[in-house]
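Structure representation:
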Amino acid sequence: MPPPFKVELKSHDPKWASKAEDEGQALAARMGACLLNVHHIGSTAIPDIHAKPILDLMPVVTSLAELDERKPHIETLGYEWWGEFGLPGRRYYTKSDPDTGRRLVQLHCYARGSPEITRHLAFREYLRGHPEVARTIARRSDARHGILMIPTLTATAKADGSKQSKPKRSNGFPASSRIGERPHSRPSSISLSAVHPGRNN
């Protein structure tokens, strides 16, 4: 089990996006063709809200079996493997500062086609497009030890008193959160083209 860590909340740091990009490139170099996309999720991916200064990344892989074969390579980057850690279909890794033990990155890995990918991306894109709702949920999450909760989209819409219809789907993903789409002028997924030339993200 990952060791507990002290929760601290900080104002949004624009550098988190570039750090997520760098981490995604490092993962791509170790994981090879097994890695399809890396998405920056969680509170550090939402502008204008307080967040734990811990990057949450969601690597999308060809299969969990292939990911498990790459486990030793991922561990060379300083990650620790925790298996599903309570969520079937996930592989969870954490990376901490070797000197201070401070948590730096959390990986929530899923195989392509997992409904969890849709859920995380839809939640992120909704909050990016509804900053007032994002701030409301962040305030409520602060009271829950800084964890950004992921309610259903219907429950999220109720936070601002609006009615939210279910997003239209395209290729298995809500239209507002397809892999590779860049809504709100912010990258939806980390570009892996430098490591995998010719790949479309």
Q: What stands out?
A: The longest helix spans residues 15-31. Strands lie at 35-41, 55-61, 79-81, 90-96, 103-111, 169-170, 173-174. The CA atoms of residues 5 and 103 lie 7 Å apart. The mean pLDDT is 80.
